[in-house]
Amino acid sequence: MPNTLDLAKLVLRLNLGILMLLHGIAKLIAGPAGILAMVAKTGLPPALGYLVYVGEVLAPLLVIVGLWTRPAALVMALNMVVAVLLAHMGQWGELTRGGGWALELQAFYFVTALSVMLLGAGKLSLGGNASRLN
Question: What gap in Å lies between CA 93 and CA 96, rounded to an integer?
């Protein structure tokens, strides 16, 4: 029987992975044009915009199943840093109408991804505890 730490790791992984994957699916459906334009606007090669699919589709899938969990969670954390730099820099000091921080969702994803990276996948994963990458 798994212990509560392994259950907590599973809940954290599923929460992070599923919620981030939904953002990735929305970007797959919308297509890459918006992201590529945003990246190009910064002066970077537009093709770098395709990396959003790594951070919001591939990495969340790996986190959900628990394979290469630590590197995948790191990719997700870095994805959030890039998202803030590209699309949300003007919101650092803003509050929403409800009183929350305008960047609380991005902060949630970033901190949760860091937590998963530090904790690893746990026993309830395809990779189990056998690999230091999990």
Answer: 10
Low-confidence spans in the chain with pLDDT less than 70: 1
Query: Using CA atoms in the order 62, 35, 42, 110, what is the torsion angle rounded to 10 degrees?
Result: -40
pTM of the model: 0.92
Q: How many residues does the chain have?
A: 134
**CA-closest candidate to residue 87, choices 133, 37, 23:** 37
Residues 6+ apart with CB under 8 A from 108: none
Q: Where are the domains of the chain?
A: 4-119
Exposure of 98 by Cβ count < 10 A (0-12 exposed, 13-18 middle, 19+ buried)?
A: exposed
